[in-house]
Amino acid sequence: MSDAMRKTRGFSLIEVLIATILVGMAIAALVAANSSFTMANDAGSDLSTAEFLIEQIRELTMMLPLVDPDASTWTVLGPESGEADVSAYDDVDDFDGATFSPPINSDRAPLTDFTTFSQQVTVEKLNPSNFNEAWADSTNSGFVRITVRVLQNGGEISSATWIRARY
Description:
Elements: H1 3-7, H2 13-62, E1 99-100, E2 117-127, E3 130-135, E4 143-152, E5 155-165
């Protein structure tokens, strides 16, 4: 056979092997990238849900006074006697130490579609001249810091803190 005939017969085995390896590497890279994109999308979805759940507590507590309006002194945080569940909470300090699982919305209804999430609420009295300093519950302060942590399966996804004044 002449040299011209050998060159026109097609691909050699080495050329086919190299092409197969390159195509395989490209497919493996696409699968890995797809997996990374899926994980990032899931994390973004969880963070969006956590921010939604934080906002539900913020909306709920913004409509309530910090403490019972008829209280002359304010020395205890947490629910008063007779306020056994969230439906009876009538002021912000009742939420101190509360955990809601499943989480609740701003109307206090459980959000049963989010059973893997929970909301933890902390209320702390603050030094009026230094908001970075928390005071003991037994002190009488006109300011509180409300912190909401959102957890999914026990791991914290997000948290937010804001300050309210007693008015």
